[in-house]
Design goal:
Chain lengths: 125, 125
């Protein structure tokens, strides 16, 4: 039976808290899920990544670029039958420059047929 | 000239912090703006309120039902060309029952032609 919105939302948050993000990509996401950044990461680029392999690539890039120092996760916050939001507050160290930074973002997740089909990130700028 | 997404987002947050919510409804919202709760407030009801007069009515109802004790507002968090999110953490007293409660919600705002045309609230449940 398909997971409910609430089950998916709590599984995603629990996974982030226990270091199971990679397992969650396989368990909770649709193969053709789309990930949308707040803006394009490069001039002329697209803010959208299509497909679970691309989303895994984003996670791998992030982990190669940043060391996770600590942080908090708030939520999930539910909306209607098919969406939830999560607030991430993360302290990171840039592996290349050593710069320590605090990042805050809101993720909005869209669920269809028991899988996450779209994630959208909102940043402070 | 129409306000930019960033200007509107900061004006909304600043208004919430300084008690200018009512002025902001007139200044920042489109006349036909839609407000969407996380779920219908009554069985069989709709979670949607259409039009600025209805949204003003929601605010008036909230103020008649709850006393604002304190809280914090985080954001705005921007996404793309037309959306922003705000995190509200509010302590309230129910004016009828006296019950003190903590409410957390995420608001996602859609902007078009320099006005807020849709707001969607996400709750912890």
């Amino acid at each position: 039976m398909a997971m409910t919105l609430k089950e998916i939302a709590h599984a995603l948050v629990d996974g982030c808290k226990t270091g199971k993000e990679a397992e969650n990509l396989d368990a909770l996401y649709a193969p053709d899920a789309v990930s949308v950044e707040a803006m394009a990461m490069a001039p002329g680029g697209s803010p959208e990544t299509h497909g679970i392999d691309g989303i895994k690539g984003k996670h791998a890039w992030w982990e190669s670029a940043f060391e996770f120092l600590g942080g908090s996760i708030e939520g999930p916050y539910l909306h209607g039958a098919d969406r939830f939001a999560v607030v991430f507050k993360v302290q990171t160290r840039n592996r290349e420059t050593g710069a320590v930074d605090a990042m805050e973002e809101v993720g909005v997740y869209h669920v269809k047929d028991g899988k996450i089909v779209r994630e959208e990130f909102f940043y402070t700028m």
